[in-house]
Amino acid sequence: MTSQAFRSLVTIATLLLVGSFALASFAESQFRWETAPGSSLALIGEHGIVWKFNFSSERPKPFFDPVALVSGESLTWNEPPDHAWHHGLWFSWKTINGTHYWETVNRTNPKLGETTWNAPKVATSPDGSARIEMDILYTVGGADPVVYEKRIIEVSSPNSDGQYHFDWDATFRAGEQDVVFDRTPIPPDPNGVPWGGYAGLSVRFAKNLSEREAVTERGPASYDKDGIHRSAGQAFDYHGKLNNQPAGIAILAHSENPRAPTPWYAIRSNMSYLNPAFLADKPYSLKAHDEFRLRYRLIVHPGIWKTERLKKASNDYANKQ
Question: Read out DSSP for 1-42?
Fold first, then answer.
C-alpha cells in the first residue's frame, strides 16, 4: 500500500469516527427532559415541547398534551370548551357497571366514578425515549376498586424525520365482583344515537388542524353526513395540516386485542377525534378477578400517510410483538 493510499484510509477512518461522535452528540443534545415532581414529564426539543405526560393527582385522568411535531406544532387539544373532559391523548372508560367515568362534571347522571393512580415509574433516556409504568384504580364512592389497570407506555425517540411512537399496553382486572364495560349505544340499538359508541383510548386533535382526511389499511376512509366514520380494521391514520404543515397520528391495534379487528370511530365535523372504539358494537363483560389486555401503537408523523405506508407500519408492529 502506498503512503498516499494509507493516508487516504486514515482520513476516511477519521471522518467516520468524527461523524459517529457528531451523531452521538447530536442525539444527546437535541433533546432534554423537563420534570415537575408529582405532576408532569416533558420531552423538550429545539422548537419546544415534543410531548408532555401530565399525571398530577389533581387531574381527572393522566394524559399526554401537547403531543407535537418536533417542529413545535401540537396535534392535540386538552380540555376544549365543547368537551372539557377530552384530554389530548388519553384513556377513559365510558361506564363500568352503570357508573360514569368519562365525564368530569355532573351533567345528566349523578353517579360519577373515580379514576385514581399511583405515582408512575418513569425511565428516560438521553435519546428522547421513555418508559412509563403505572397502576390505575377505578372506584365508586371510596369503596374497593371495581377494576384494576396496569398500564405501560413506551415512547420511542424521534427519528431523523421527526416521527415517533407510543406503545400503549394496558391490562384490566376485575375486582371482587363481575363488571360490565359499556358505552352510549349506537343504531340499530333502540336507544342508539349516531354519536355514541366511544370509550377507551382517544385522541382529540388540535383546533387548527385543517384539511382533515383519514385512511385505513384498505384505503381512504369516508365520512357520513354528520362527519362520522365507522369501520373495523387493524389500523387508522388521521391527518391534516397544521399551519400548512401536513401531519397526522396513526393508531395501530394489536391483532390479539379482544374483538379484533378493531371498530374505529372518527369525527371531522365540529371536532377532530379518533378512537379505537372497543365497545362500539356492544358492552364487554368480565367475571370477578378475570382480566383482559389492550395494546396499541400510536405514531406521530409529519407528512400525509397513504394506505401503503399505514399497512407497512401495521405489519411492522404485528411482527415485533
Answer: --HHHHHHHHHHHHHHHHHHHHHHHHHHHH-EEEEETTTEEE
In angstroms, the CA 281 to CA 273 distance is 18
Q: If residue 317 lies in a helix (H) or strand (E), which one and from where to where? A: helix 307-319
Tell which residue, 277, 299, 264, 273, has the closest CA to residue 209: 273
**164-178: string of b/e by CB count within 10 Å (b at 16+)?**
bbbbbbbebbbbeee
Sequence letter at residue 42: A
Q: What is the grid cell recorded at 237?
A: 391514520
pTM recorded for the entire structure? 0.89
C-alpha cell at position 211? 384539511
Q: Are 303 and 112 in contact (CB under 8 A)?
A: no
Closest to 276 measured CA to CA, from 301, 299, 256, 250? 250
For residue 110, give the C-alpha cell.
349523578
Alpha-carbon gap, residue 107 to 105, rounded angstroms: 6
Question: pLDDT for 287-311, tens place per residue?
Answer: 999 999 999 999 999 999 999 999 9
Give the burial class of 132: count Cβ atoms within 10 A of its Cβ; 0-12 exposed, 13-18 middle, 19 or more buried.
Answer: buried
Please answer whether residues 201 and 167 qualify as being in contact, where contact means their C-beta atoms are separated by less than 8 angstroms: no
Are the CB atoms for 62 and 55 separated by under 8 Å?
A: yes
Amino acid identity, position 133: E
**Three-class DSSP labels, 61-98:** CCEEEEEECCCCCECECECCCCCCCCECEEEECCEECC
Compute the Cα dihedral for 228, 231, 236, 237 and give only its sign.
negative
pLDDT in tens, 12-61: 333 333 344 333 433 455 899 999 999 999 999 999 999 999 999 999 99
